[in-house]
Design brief:
Elements lengths: L1 E5 L6 H5 L2 E8 L2 E8 L2 E7 L4 H15 L3 E10 L9 E9 L22 E2 L2 H8 L8 E8 L23 E3 L2 H11 L3 E9 L5 H8 L3 H12 L4
Parallel strand pairs: 1-4, 1-5, 5-10, 6-8, 8-9
Antiparallel strand pairs: 2-3, 3-4, 5-9, 6-7, 6-10
Helix pairs in contact: 2-4
Bound molecules: adenine (ADE).
C-alpha cells in the first residue's frame, strides 16, 4: 500500500472524494482512510501541522502498514521569484530550517552529532515526478525548507537564511520530518507541494485564499504518480 499524507483536512479532501472501497480506521483522534485510487491500495490521512505531528504520524503508519512509499502533499510558500503561486514544487531534498545549533559548531539545518542535514527524496520517485506536466502552473524540482513557523516576512524568506545559507526554493512545516522518518526506516518518500504564497507580507492572506482548493492540484499529481509506483 501507498501512504498519502497532507497536514490538514483541506490538503487531503480531493483524495478522499475519488477513493474507491473506502474504509475508515480511527487512531488517537485521527481518521485513516483505506481504499484504492487509480486501482492502487492507498491509505490517506491527515498528519496534523508541524514537524512533531508529521513525524509521529509517519512513524506510526510505517510501523502499522510498512508502505511501499509515502507521498506528502499540500501547500508551500515560494522562496524564489521564478516559483509562482499555483506552481508545483517537488522536493529534491529537504532540510529543517529551524534546527540552529551554530553555538556548538553545526551549520543551520544539521542535526547535531549526526550526518543529517539535507535529506534527499527517493531517487526513483523523484525521477517519475520530474516528468509530470501540471495542468496549471509550472513544475519545479528543488529544495524544501521545513520548520515550525509560518513564514510571512521577506526578511526571512527571500533575503534571509532560507534562500541564502540554505538555498531553499520553498518553505513549509512538515516535509523534512516526514522525509527523515522515512529515510531512517528505509521507506521511499516524496514531498510535492502547490505554491500558495510567496512567504512574504501577503502570505497569510494568500494561504487562506488557497486553502479551500489546496488538494485539487495535488490530486492530479497523485493520479499521475500512483500507477507508476
Ligand atoms: N505553507 C504554505 N505557505 C507557508 C509559509 N509561508 N510558511 C510556512 N508554511 C507554509
Amino acid at each position: 500500500m501507498i501512504v498519502i499524507l497532507g497536514a490538514m483536512d483541506s490538503e487531503i479532501g480531493s483524495f478522499l472524494s475519488v477513493m474507491d472501497n473506502g474504509q475508515i480506521r480511527h487512531w488517537n483522534g485521527f481518521d485513516h482512510h483505506q481504499g484504492t485510487i487509480e486501482g492502487r491500495a492507498v491509505l490517506v490521512s491527515k498528519s496534523g501541522v508541524g514537524k512533531v505531528m508529521a513525524a509521529m504520524m509517519t512513524q506510526h503508519l510505517i510501523d502499522d502498514y510498512r508502505p511501499l512509499a509515502v507521498l506528502f502533499t499540500g501547500l508551500a510558500g515560494s522562496l524564489q521569484p521564478q516559483i509562482g503561486i499555483g506552481d508545483t514544487l517537488v522536493a529534491r531534498d529537504l532540510v529543517q530550517h529551524d534546527m540552529e545549533t551554530s553555538a556548538i559548531g553545526f551549520p543551520r539545518g544539521q542535526i547535531p552529532f549526526s550526518d543529517w542535514r539535507f535529506i534527499p527524496a527517493d531517487p526513483r520517485l523523484l525521477h517519475l515526478a520530474s516528468d509530470y506536466e501540471p495542468a496549471l502552473g509550472k513544475l519545479h524540482v528543488g529544495r524544501i525548507c521545513t520548520g515550525d513557523q509560518f513564514i510571512s516576512h521577506r526578511e526571512m524568506s527571500s533575503h534571509g537564511y532560507l534562500a541564502g545559507e540554505l538555498a531553499g526554493d520553498g518553505v513549509e512545516m512538515e516535509g523534512a520530518s516526514v522525509a527523515q522518518v522515512c529515510a531512517v526506516n528505509n521507506v521511499p518518500c516524496l514531498v510535492a507541494r502547490t505554491i500558495s504564497d510567496k512567504a512574504d507580507g501577503s502570505a497569510a492572506v494568500n494561504f487562506e485564499e488557497f486553502l479551500p482548493r489546496a488538494s485539487h492540484n495535488s490530486l492530479d499529481f497523485i493520479r499521475y504518480m500512483l500507477p507508476q509506483i
